[in-house]
Amino acid sequence: MIKLTRLNGSELYLNQDLIKSIEEKPDTTIELINGDRILVREQPDEIIDRIIAFRLRIVRLAGGDAQTTQSNVKSTNSFSFFPYF
């Protein structure tokens, strides 16, 4: 889960696997797979970086090689929510 901040300043933890899309219009809008939308203060690139960091922590905890895994992610612009496929 990643920590985000709603526009009103309240914090929430979001299961990143529920994210369908992230748009900046001008506020950052996260659309979830169930159709719900959440407005947050963080920029899309920052959210993507948090998702990557969370997934790398999972790999490390599972005993995987986080350095090799991180090299699979070229940049936030080409990020895939499923970097192993």
Structure keywords:
5 strands, 85 residues, single chain, alpha+beta, two-stranded antiparallel sheet, 27% strand, 2 helices, three-stranded antiparallel sheet
Task: Furnish the topology, listing elements before pairings.
Elements: E1 2-5, E2 11-14, E3 19-24, E4 28-32, E5 37-40, H1 44-61, H2 66-71
Antiparallel strand pairs: 1-2, 3-4, 4-5
Mean pLDDT over the residues: 85
Helix fraction, binned, reads 25-40%
Which spans of ≥5 residues are poorly predicted at pLDDT below 50?
Answer: 74-80
Q: What is the domain total for the residues?
A: 1
The coarse overall form would be: elongated
Strand order of the largest sheet: 3-4-5
- State which percent range the strand residues make up: 25-35%
| Helical segment count | 2
Find the structural class using helix and strand composition.
alpha+beta
- DSSP summary, beta strand count: 5
Q: Radius of gyration over alpha carbons?
A: 13 Å
Order of SSEs: EEEEEHH
Distance between the termini: 21 Å
> Largest sheet at a glance?
3 strands, antiparallel
Mind explaining what this structure looks like?
28% of the residues lie in helices and 27% in strands. The protein contains 2 helices and 5 strands; from the N terminus they run E-E-E-E-E-H-H. Mean pLDDT is 85; it is low at 74-80. It is elongated and about 40 Å long. The chain is an alpha+beta fold and 85 residues long. Keywords: Cell projection, Cilium, Flagellum.
Provide a concise account of the structure shown.
The chain is an alpha+beta fold and 85 residues long.
